[in-house]
Design a protein that fits this description.
Distance between the termini: 71 Å
CATH class of the domain at 29-94: Mainly Alpha
Order of helices and strands: HEHHHEH
Number of strands: 2
CATH superfamily of the domain at 29-94: Tex RuvX-like domain-like
Oligomer: single chain
Length: 113
């Protein structure tokens, strides 16, 4: 009886771990275009070293992307490349996406000078 309970418990633990690792793998496929290095950006379809560097340079020159669609503003990234990758693109580093302000404020909500 004790062995049967152990097998059931072990099976349940293994199922939970398998489901959790599947969710982690799904999330791991996402690329935050506001924080990704050129190497990470190259994991996207149609993005090689030249386009990855353009994305990083665009982000450094223009600030964080506000939406995934904004990647189309980068020279050479057109609708086809965006469509191939749109399900993997995130903008988690963006203040708009996180709901945080970019400039400090006091308790009244007024920006500090």
């Amino acid at each position: 009886m004790r062995t049967k309970r152990g097998i059931i418990l072990l099976s349940a633990v293994m199922m939970v771990m398998a489901m959790a690792s599947g969710l982690w793998a799904q999330e791991a496929g996402k690329v935050d275009i506001n924080t990704a290095s050129a190497e990470v950006l190259m994991t996207l379809d149609g993005i090689g070293p030249v386009y990855a560097e353009r994305i990083v340079e665009y982000r450094e020159a223009n600030g964080l992307f506000k939406s995934a669609e904004d990647i189309r503003d980068v020279s050479g990234i057109g609708p086809k490349t965006f469509e191939q990758n749109k399900d993997r693109l995130t903008v988690g580093g963006s203040p708009a996406a996180t709901g945080t302000e970019t400039s400090p404020s006091d308790a009244s909500g007024k920006k500090k000078e």
